[in-house]
């Protein structure tokens, strides 16, 4: 399990993780606190990550953790 609450840096971290399938397959769950309300410039990148995550079976990625 991986919990991510890094005040806006979650976008860079998730983009890097999603580009490494070998690493992802070692994680069962990812819980992410997103900050697009506090940092509106991140909204489109977070939306793209949510879309990408829909097509990943493992790990389960929960973008609504806070």
Protein described:
The protein is α/β, with parallel strands linked by helices. It is 36% helix and 15% strand. It has 3 helices and 3 strands, in the order E-H-H-E-H-E. The protein has helices spanning 10-18, 21-24, 43-53; strands at residues 2-4, 29-32, 60-62. The chain has a 3-stranded parallel β-sheet, with no helix packed on it. The two termini are 15 Å apart. The mean pLDDT is 93.
List the helices and strands and how they pair.
Layout: E1 2-4, H1 10-18, H2 21-24, E2 29-32, H3 43-53, E3 60-62
Parallel strand pairs: 1-2, 2-3
Helix pairs in contact: 1-3
Characteristic key phrases:
alpha/beta, 36% helix, 3 strands, single chain, 66 residues, three-stranded parallel sheet
How many individual β-strands?
3
**What class, by secondary structure content?**
alpha/beta
Percent helix, as a range, is 25-40%
Return residue spans where pLDDT drops below 50 for at least 5 consecutive residues.
Answer: none
Strand order of the largest sheet: 1-2-3
Strand content: 15-25%
Strand count, sense and barrel status of the largest sheet are:
3 strands, parallel
Continuous helix count: 3
Which word captures the global form? globular
Question: Whole-number radius of gyration?
Answer: 11 Å
Task: Return the average pLDDT rounded to an integer.
Answer: 93
Reading the helices and strands in chain order gives EHHEHE
Distance between the termini: 15 Å
């Amino acid at each position: 399990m991986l919990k991510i609450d890094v005040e806006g840096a979650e976008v860079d971290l998730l983009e890097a993780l999603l580009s490494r399938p070998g690493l992802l397959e070692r994680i069962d769950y990812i819980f992410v606190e997103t900050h697009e309300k506090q940092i509106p410039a991140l909204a489109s990148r977070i939306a793209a990550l949510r879309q990408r995550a829909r097509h990943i079976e493992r790990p389960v990625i929960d973008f609504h953790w806070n």
